[in-house]
Structure formats: structure tokens, C-alpha cells
């Protein structure tokens, strides 16, 4: 299977009635256009997604001053950072592997996604791109970032969500989801909504609505082939990172979706592993405005 013949995406698109020919992965380009290169070089953070050696999926955030992500060729990105312990990705890229990436300007709501493969070279990562494409500004909350000195990064590992984790998730207006499927690679996507759009059903199951998007269904297409995925909830005020790995399933019952404003369908996620890191990133964000696309 190639990225241009993503059976998972095609299955989902057929199910929901998308009639655009060769939509999704088939329409993306591996080339980093000059505008995309400029945008990436201006970013102060990116979110990465990849599978660990045991197959579990994770997402993490890398932070640096503008210029820490640089296009050095039309299909090559160099990231002047490596995930360090206690990050779930510490040491992961000693071997080349599929990687998904999203770069967002939270002030302008612009974003670019990059999928390909990554490996450590020296003190950074080199990414060979397979897909580079822009996304619409829907569901992105406006925030302004401030750089701070790095604090002590203390991690807590577990297999269940604590009361504090559940409280953080219930008030979240944004998270990131990493998925992957054999033969088509990894992907990272942004999810946003008003606080409370992610619910904690029974303590260890999260649910959220899938809102109307760009009809590419890259995330749902990967989940169609492999339910393993990783979630990242960032505490924008403290710089903390809540990494959760587990399995997700799409609920296609229209009656359930109809009960949630704006929902096209519902996603259920079962928690398997949790890594909670204090002061994980050296940025803090000030909230400005919710997206006008967020359903009430």
C-alpha cells in the first residue's frame, strides 16, 4: 500500500459520501514549497507523533526559537532539537521511523502538517518528507506565547488517569492526536473545541466529537487500519504535558452524534499508558479567543 492509495482513508470517505476523486493523501505533495519552508522556520514549537518500539503511539511537543526547524532541501527538514528524558520519545529516533508533524501559529491560526520519516543526526532530527500540506484554521484557539526558563522536568508514569488528569482533560479546549498505519506512515492532527468537548466517560475512557473538517480523514483513515494512537494535552499556562497512549474507535451511530452539537460522529479512546511531565516545554501561552467554528 502506498500513501496515495490509503485504503483506510478511502473506506472512511466512501462511508461518509465524499465524492471528490483522489482526495486526502493522494492530493498531497512531498515537496516543501518556499512558503511552507518560511512558515516552518518561523515556528517556536512543533508537535511530533510516532510509534515506540512496542508499537504504542505517542505525541510530543518540541520547542525552540524560530529557526530551529529548517528546510535544507525540497524534501528535507532539519530540527535542531532532540526529545530528552523523561519525554516518551527520548532515544526513539536512533533508528529511522515514520513520523507525523504539525506546526501551528496559534496567533494567526495557520498550520502545516508534515508526514515522512525521521532519524537522529547529531544533536537533532532529520526528516525526509512524504506529505507537506496546509490545513484550514477551524477549531484553533488564539494564544500568544512567551518564552520562559526551563524548569525541573519531573515525570509520573502510570496506566490510569488520576483525578487531576481528568480535571485537566475536561477543561481542555485543544489536544493533539498521533496515528499510524503500516505502509502509509504516521500523522499528527490538532483537535479543538470549547472546554468540555472531551469527556471522561468512566475514568479511563475519553470521548470527543469529530467535527466537520477538510474531508481528507487522515486521522480516521489511519484508525480504520490501526486503532493505536497517542494523545497530547498541553497545559498552556504551566508548560506541562500530559501524554496518553491507547486505542481509539469511531462510533458511526448517527443518533449518538446527533446529541452533541456539531458532531459528525464520536470517537472513543481507551487509556493504556500515561506519562505526565511537569514543565515539559519552555513556553507559556496567554489565551486570547476561541475559534468561531467551535460548536456551542
UniProtKB/TrEMBL annotation:
<protein>
    <submittedName>
        <fullName>Pyridoxamine 5'-phosphate oxidase family protein</fullName>
    </submittedName>
</protein>
<dbReference type="InterPro" id="IPR012349">
    <property type="entry name" value="Split_barrel_FMN-bd"/>
</dbReference>
<feature type="domain" description="Pyridoxamine 5'-phosphate oxidase N-terminal">
    <location>
        <begin position="161"/>
        <end position="260"/>
    </location>
</feature>
<dbReference type="InterPro" id="IPR011576">
    <property type="entry name" value="Pyridox_Oxase_N"/>
</dbReference>
<dbReference type="Pfam" id="PF01243">
    <property type="entry name" value="PNPOx_N"/>
</dbReference>
Amino acid at each position: 500500500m502506498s500513501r496515495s492509495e490509503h485504503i483506510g482513508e478511502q473506506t472512511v470517505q466512501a462511508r461518509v459520501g465524499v465524492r471528490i476523486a483522489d482526495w486526502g493523501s493522494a492530493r498531497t505533495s512531498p515537496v516543501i514549497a518556499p512558503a511552507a519552508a518560511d512558515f516552518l522556520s518561523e515556528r517556536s514549537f512543533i508537535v511530533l507523533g510516532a510509534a515506540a518500539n512496542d508499537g504504542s503511539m505517542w505525541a510530543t511537543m518540541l520547542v525552540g526559537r524560530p529557526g530551529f526547524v529548517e528546510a535544507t532541501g525540497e524534501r528535507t527538514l532539519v530540527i535542531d532539537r532532540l526529545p530528552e528524558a523523561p519525554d516518551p520519545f527520548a532515544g526513539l529516533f536512533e533508528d529511522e521511523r515514520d513520523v507525523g508533524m504539525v506546526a501551528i501559529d496559534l496567533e494567526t491560526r495557520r498550520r502545516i502538517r508534515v508526514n515522512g520519516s525521521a532519524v537522529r543526526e547529531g544533536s537533532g532530527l532529520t526528516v525526509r518528507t512524504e506529505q507537506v500540506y496546509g490545513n484550514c484554521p477551524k477549531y484553533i484557539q488564539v494564544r500568544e506565547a512567551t518564552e520562559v526558563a526551563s524548569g525541573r522536568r519531573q515525570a509520573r508514569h502510570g496506566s490510569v488517569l488520576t483525578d487531576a488528569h481528568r480535571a485537566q482533560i475536561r477543561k481542555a479546549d485543544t489536544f493533539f492526536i498521533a496515528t499510524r498505519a503500516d505502509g502509509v506512515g504516521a500523522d499528527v492532527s490538532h483537535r479543538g473545541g470549547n472546554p468540555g468537548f472531551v469527556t471522561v466517560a468512566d475514568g479511563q475512557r475519553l470521548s470527543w466529537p469529530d467535527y466537520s473538517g477538510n474531508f481528507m480523514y487522515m486521522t480516521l483513515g489511519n484508525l480504520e487500519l490501526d486503532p493505536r494512537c497517542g494523545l497530547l494535552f498541553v497545559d498552556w499556562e504551566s508548560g506541562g504535558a500530559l501524554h496518553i497512549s491507547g486505542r481509539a474507535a469511531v462510533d458511526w451511530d448517527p443518533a449518538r452524534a446527533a446529541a452533541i452539537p456539531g458532531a459528525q460522529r464520536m470517537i472513543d479512546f481507551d487509556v493504556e499508558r500515561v506519562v505526565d511531565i511537569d514543565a515539559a516545554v519552555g513556553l507559556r501561552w496567554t489565551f486570547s479567543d476561541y475559534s468561531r467554528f467551535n460548536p456551542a
